[in-house]
Amino acid sequence: MADKKDEVVLSIRNMSESFGRNRVLDHINLDVKRGTVMGLMGENGAGKSTMMKCLFGTYQKDEGNIYLKGKEVSFSGPKDALENGIAMVHQELNQVLNQTVMENMWLGRFPMKHGLVDDQKMYEDTKAIFDDLDIQVNPKVKIGTLKVSQKQMIEIAKAVSYNSKVIVMDEPTSSLTQTEIDQLFEQIHKLKEAGIAIVYISHRMEEIFKVSDSI
Q1: Cβ neighbourhood burial of 106 (10 Å; 0-12, 13-18, 19+)
Q2: Which of 214, 207, 201, 202 is nearest to 178 (CA)?
Q3: Residue 3: its pLDDT value, please?
């Protein structure tokens, strides 16, 4: 039996995308294995973000196929991708700053009880994920009061809450200090141990070589 680590979770085959006469992606192939970090590098304009937007259904690709755990998929948009186990932590965080951490975690899918939001279950579910990831944040505080690195950890926890098989991180260290970067790498290690595959987009070569299993 093949080692679980050798299991290809996400596979992109012959993906192409053009904007008018500008061919941004030209028959791209990519395999991402379970519990590993795939470093995705390229200068500005190389097509990294375009490829991810095609993956998430933000753009509809011109050619090619996407397979998730061997099954061909084509997502209508980011919500569809999330619900099928592919999440993305964006460089620009999009959070409701005057709401609590746990409200941001479960926005659009609050647990309900007798027709009302079940705050206790929302707190317990959030706390359980935070404990697994060793995130030291009170789920009841306003997310706007947190540091950038803490807000980013919340986005990673939110991705985990969807039972994601693949998490894409887009330039995740652009606003972090070195200490916060070290904390992020610890989180990535925990995700790998849980069998989650990471696509790590960065132009910082020292980070790519430190955190990636393949590039």
Answers
A1: middle
A2: 207
A3: 55
Overall average pLDDT of the 20-43 stretch: 92
Per-residue pLDDT averaged across 120-130, rounded? 95
